[in-house]
Design a protein that fits this description.
The complex is a heterodimer of chains A (382) and B (623). Chain A is an alpha+beta fold and 382 residues long. Chain A is 40% helix and 16% strand. In chain A, the strands form 5 sheets. Chain A has a 6-stranded mixed β-sheet, sandwiched between helices. A 3-stranded antiparallel β-sheet of chain A has the order 7-6-9, with no helix packed on it. Chain A has a two-stranded antiparallel ribbon with strand order 1-4. The longest helix of chain A has 20 residues, at 15-34. The chains are: A alpha+beta (382), B alpha+beta (623).
């Protein structure tokens, strides 16, 4: 049984704070306006160039550059309006204790501007981008503002949760699993009885491992993000690591896409860099499948897939340096000898391997041999 | 023969009659010598027998086309033009504001022409129009009426070196000849001078064989004006749109004239009255008469002058007396440069040497203050009268200059935008108009042969794209505008005497170009100003649209009243302006006429930005 790292149990986030914080920004704006100052919204830039790697914390974060969104600037007035509009919609939702999705917000705010044929938003992408602006401007994440997004992560293992007064025992889903909800901070983790967290890239592998009750035999928690992980899954992994001190192992295919998925679990992504502090889990370790495993476990050559151009391009990108700052774009790959070796080996052989390829050694090879062996041998890459 | 008939005025035979006569004599003399060698008559001899002098009336009867009476379509306009020209000149000579009434009525008579213009080669019929032009000019002295109207090349204009509409005084005679050729009807002239008790009415024809008037009747009649002349002609013609556009341009060129036109283009049709009240009460300054400049002379004409001179005792005196800008000193200089002793008889002057010297010796330009331009202000008023809804009206002129010793001045004007202007322009595509050029030569509209005309060609040469007007190279700009190009001169260099097109002269071309470019800059600054205004209005409306939205959202977020937020928001876009309002609009008139919806709401638009950003990008901002 693992103890919560916190002395006191961390209280659930309340939406009242968010409501107050959001309103405060606009109250200040109107005060400026009353004092005849041109209204300006200061929004940290979400561009790639304003994304930096925080070495100390080992995650990607936003830089310090801030953009000004002005009303009295013809090129900025539309997005200024959109920001106010969306903020108002969020504020109304918070006040009424509603938890809309960002798509709900888009439709809620979409209308034709009076006296024109102009729509407030051209498409949802525009609305989403403004929404992210509000997140960085207020420092409030969508989960804190009660905005629901699509979620697809699943979890199973010896862990007991509480939500809306119900106890959820994650050992009792049978061949099913607990779907991690978008607002995963609204769930209390009551008990955890596991040695580590195993994050599986693929849902199919997750289901097989669950079927074998791998988690019970190996005393761990199984989580999948079903491909590129959503925010809630990453948040849950982060919570288990941060609040309960569980080590995190990531299992993906042996290809650049798998590495990239690991990379987002570990350091965050550029597009959500402002959220990395909540989502990224720098302690996450890459368990496999590595290029060296392919040799080590003697996976037959014809079970491997030839890498295509996109794979190679992506692999090269992982080692690339930013042309402006001359810093590696993915320092956790670039500065690790093992990772460089791994990526170069891939670039040399130009082959990739799926986890399922191990089934050539038998259906249970993965769960009974490979994973326990890797973990007990500490055969991972950090 | 000609000499006897036209003997009292040297000019008439000088130009047309005499040279032909002389040539004939010379040839005959040569023949006589030859005959002594051989008795057989040669071809040349046979030809020589047919040779005889042509009098100007005959000549012009044969060549009416040169004078603008080539075909019935031109003839109507040309008749009105010649008569009105004389009327305007007559009024201005007296220093009174012209009041002219023109009546054009179709009669039942027809004139038949065999022409190849009809496909079946058949007969084309033209109605005969009765044209009456009535003026308040000085009138004609009784004793001279018959000759003035009935003898070709008789008149006051040929001898004067002074700006006037008609130049050789051929026009009215050509009209009378044309009238009697097509309608067989005589001209009816009623005239009264200030001192006459009653008006004098003469009905006459021109005997073209003799070049003298045939007076059919002459009588005293009452007249309803203190002085003036009425000319009535019956001419065959074809009524086209050009008639009305000519009338319009005529009134444009003469803003001080009160013009009234009564038109009845078909026998049974409606009568149409077009009345142009005068746009200005100010009479243009009268043109001054000057002696010719030596550089303006043709060598032949100079030779004539020399051989006809009977009063000057030597070459020096001849030069000083007959030419402008030649002082005694300059005359001596000129003669010594030409290697002519100053005391020879004028007859002995070597014309070629004199001309060569005149080009080398620096002779001052002719006095340039002798012209009577329309005037910039008058042009503006005139355009405003014709195009009351034009968005922009401006005029500019160059200082007088001279070509080949002849003073001239260029004036240009523009009326831009507005429905009435667009209506006068050719529509290239819906919404795209081609500029219209109105050419004026000594205040007379030139409406035919534009492609040969220097005025028209120069307009096309200008790169109007420099002034923000779309243009295909070498054509008229594509903009709803009327361009007035006026050339004033003591002698407008027409390509033919019919006064259709101005011939090319470097100096005129250059002055025209400069004037049009100056006008172009004015148009440019207006177009830019308008674009800026439009841009600004557009910008304001964008802010307004969004401010309303934002005010509602901020009201819901903060509870502050929508109205207050909206006003404060709009204030932030406005405050920026005051600092940048220094730039005044280019033309005060524009402001008066253009309706600016919210003059106080204006904001700064960086000019550079504005130039780059079209309406299109502005729209892009909204979407």
């Amino acid at each position: 049984m693992v103890k919560n790292r916190y002395i006191k149990e961390r209280p659930l986030e309340s939406f009242d704070d968010a409501e107050r914080k959001l309103r405060q920004i606009f109250v200040r704006l109107v005060e400026d306006l009353k004092a005849s100052k041109p209204p300006v919204l200061r929004i940290p830039l979400r561009t790639a160039s304003n994304t930096v790697f925080d070495k100390k914390r080992g995650i990607i974060t936003l830089g310090e550059r801030v953009g000004e969104r002005k009303f009295n600037d013809i090129s900025g007035v539309r997005s200024f309006m959109q920001t106010c509009l969306l903020a108002r919609a969020i504020y109304e939702a918070l006040k009424n204790n509603d938890h809309p999705t960002i798509r709900d917000l888009y439709y809620y705010t979409l209308h034709t501007i009076e006296g024109t044929e102009i729509e407030t938003f051209n498409d949802q992408d525009e609305s989403n981008s403004i929404f992210q602006d509000i997140e960085v401007m207020t420092g409030l994440l969508r989960e804190q503002m009660g905005i629901v997004a699509e979620s697809r992560g699943a979890m199973v293992g010896n862990i007991i949760l509480e939500s809306k007064g119900n106890r959820i025992d994650c050992t009792k889903f049978g061949i099913g699993a607990f779907n991690i909800p978008s607002l995963c901070d609204q769930i209390r983790i009551l008990e955890v009885n596991a040695d580590y967290v195993l994050v599986v890239e693929k849902d199919a592998i997750f289901q097989r491992l669950n079927d074998y009750e791998f988690w019970r035999k190996n005393h761990c928690i199984l989580i999948t993000g079903k491909g590129q992980a959503d925010r809630a899954t990453r948040r849950m992994v982060k919570r288990l690591n941060e609040e309960w001190g569980l080590p995190v192992y990531v299992l993906t295919d042996a290809d650049p896409f798998g590495w990239y998925i690991y990379s987002t679990y570990r350091a965050g992504s550029i597009s959500l860099s402002y959220e990395s502090f909540r989502l990224a889990c720098p302690e996450a370790k890459f368990l496999g499948m590595t290029m060296t495993d392919i040799e080590k476990y003697e996976i037959p050559r014809d079970h491997l897939i030839k890498a295509n151009e996109i794979d190679i391009k992506r692999a090269k990108e992982l080692l690339v340096k930013d042309p402006v700052t001359k810093l590696p774009r993915y320092p956790w790959f670039f500065e690790s000898k093992k990772w460089r070796q791994e990526i170069n080996m891939f670039l040399e052989r130009k082959v990739k391997g799926e986890i399922e390829a191990k089934s050539s050694k038998g259906f249970r090879f993965l769960s009974d041999v490979y994973l326990p062996e890797k973990i007990s041998n500490k055969d991972w890459i950090t | 023969m000609v000499r006897e008939d036209g003997g009292d005025k040297r000019g008439a035979d000088k130009v047309v009659g005499k040279p032909i006569l002389r040539k004939a004599k010379r040839v005959r003399r040569g023949q006589i010598k030859q005959r002594s060698l051989s008795d057989t008559p040669t071809v040349a001899e046979a030809e020589a027998k047919k040779m005889r002098a042509v009098n100007p009336a005959q000549y012009y009867r044969q060549n009416l086309g040169q004078l603008g009476f080539g075909d019935p379509e031109h003839a109507l306009v040309q008749t009105i033009k010649e008569l009105v020209d004389n009327s305007l000149d007559a009024a201005e000579a007296m220093g009174v504001l012209p009041e002219i009434a023109v009546t054009l009525t179709a009669t039942e008579k027809e004139y038949e022409v065999i022409t190849n213009r009809v496909k079946d080669g058949g007969i084309r019929k033209f109605p005969i129009f009765k044209i009456t032009v009535e003026d308040n000019g000085c009138g004609v002295v009784r004793s001279k009426v018959a000759k003035a109207f009935g003898k070709v090349l008789y008149g006051s204009k040929f001898f004067s070196f002074k700006q006037s509409r008609g130049q050789q005084g051929l026009g009215v005679h050509a009209a009378i000849i044309y009238a009697q050729l097509t309608s067989l009807e005589p001209a009816v002239i009623t005239t009264k001078t200030e001192t006459d008790e009653k008006a004098y009415r003469v009905v006459l024809k021109i005997d073209t064989e003799q070049n003298k008037p045939i007076v059919i009747s002459a009588e005293d009649v009452p007249f309803n004006r203190p002085h003036g002349t009425t000319v009535e002609l019956m001419v065959a013609g074809e009524y086209t749109k050009k008639v009305e556009s000519f009338i319009k341009e005529l009134s444009l060129a003469n803003p001080h004239a009160e013009l009234k036109f009564t038109l009845k283009p078909t026998v049974n049709g409606e009568e149409k009255v077009i009345h142009y009240p005068r746009a200005t009460e100010i009479l243009p300054p009268p043109p001054k008469e000057i002696r010719p400049h030596i550089l303006s002379m043709e060598p032949g004409a100079l030779l004539e002058m020399i051989s006809n001179d009977r009063c000057c005792k030597d070459a020096k005196q001849f030069l000083v007396k007959h030419f402008v800008r030649i002082s005694e000193l300059k005359a001596l200089q000129l003669l010594s440069a030409a290697n002519i002793p100053p005391d020879v008889l004028p007859k002995e002057i070597n014309v070629e040497a004199l001309f060569k010297a005149a080009k080398e010796v620096d002779i001052m330009r002719p006095p340039l203050d002798v012209l009577s331009p329309i005037g910039e202000e008058a042009l503006r008023q005139s355009l405003r009268r014709l195009y009351p809804d034009a968005e922009f009206i401006e005029a500019t002129s160059r200082d007088p200059w001279s070509y080949r010793g002849i003073p001239f001045q260029v004036e240009v004007a523009v009326a831009y935008g507005g429905a009435s202007v667009a209506n006068d322009c050719e529509t290239v595509r819906p919404g795209v108009f081609k500029a219209k050029v109105i050419r004026l030569g000594n205040k007379c509209p030139l409406i035919y042969d534009s492609k040969d005309c220097l005025l028209h060609k120069t307009v096309k040469e200008i790169n109007w794209r420099n002034y923000k007007l779309p243009q295909e190279e070498g054509t008229l700009p594509l903009a709803p505008m009327v361009l007035v190009v006026s050339l004033i001169s003591t002698k407008v260099p027409y390509t033919v005497p019919g006064k259709f097109a101005v011939a090319y002269h470097d100096e005129i071309h250059e002055q025209l170009r400069l004037a049009l470019q100056a006008l172009g800059r004015m148009i440019h600054s207006y177009v830019t100003h308008r674009q800026r205004q439009e841009h600004e209005r557009h910008r304001q409306s964008i802010f307004q649209i969004y401010a309303r939205e934002i005010a509602r959202d901020l009201h819901l977020l903060t509870g502050v009243s929508q109205e207050e937020i909206f006003n404060k928001l709009m204030e932030t876009v406005r405050t920026k302006t005051i600092a940048s309002e220094k730039r005044p609009p280019p033309q005060q008139e524009v402001l008066k006429l253009k309706e600016v919806p919210a003059p106080s709401i204006t904001a700064k638009v960086p000019t550079k930005k504005l130039k780059e950003k079209s309406q299109h990008t502005l729209d892009a901002f909204i979407r």
